[in-house]
Design goal:
mainly alpha
Length: about 150
């Protein structure tokens, strides 16, 4: 994932904002204002941090085959690392939200659906910043679309 520092910061800010709006909207609808916005904001930040830990682990796992001499294209690396990161994100959330033996019986699809919806919000910020970065590279004079270095 060859994002610049400003692109990573943009992804983080956009991801936290999306999760804050989502978590706050759902939290306020569920609790009717019985819990504070601060705790909902902390939940959004925590989910966003989990997302970036999963992104780091996914990107690290994608680079591992290079130790064996297997080279992957940059687009394939990006796609596989995002997919691995979101699979890991969903798995961690499902494990954390799984009902315990003393909980009120409920179906298992609740945690899975919530984790999948939150994984979809991960993709919005990441793909939006990637698309804008690609568009900016295409529009800059002297920069080819498939390279970030100026053409001589």
């Amino acid at each position: 994932m060859n994002f610049s520092t400003s692109q990573w910061l943009s992804i983080i800010v956009l991801d936290v904002l999306i999760k804050f709006v989502f978590v706050t909207a759902v939290g306020l609808l569920v609790t009717y204002g019985l819990i504070s916005i601060d705790s909902l904001a902390m939940a959004a930040v925590s989910l966003s941090l989990l997302h970036f830990v999963c992104l780091f682990l996914g990107a690290t796992l994608v680079v591992a085959p290079e130790l064996l001499g297997v080279q992957l294209s940059p687009m394939l690396k990006f796609t596989v690392s995002v997919a691995l990161a979101n699979i890991l994100f969903v798995a961690v959330l499902v494990v954390l939200m799984w009902p315990g033996p003393n909980d009120i019986p409920r179906t298992a699809d609740g945690p899975i659906v919530v984790a999948l919806v939150l994984a979809a919000t991960n993709l919005v910020a990441l793909l939006a910043v990637a698309a804008v970065g690609r568009l900016i590279r295409r529009l800059k004079p002297g920069v080819r679309a498939d390279e970030s270095a100026p053409v001589a």
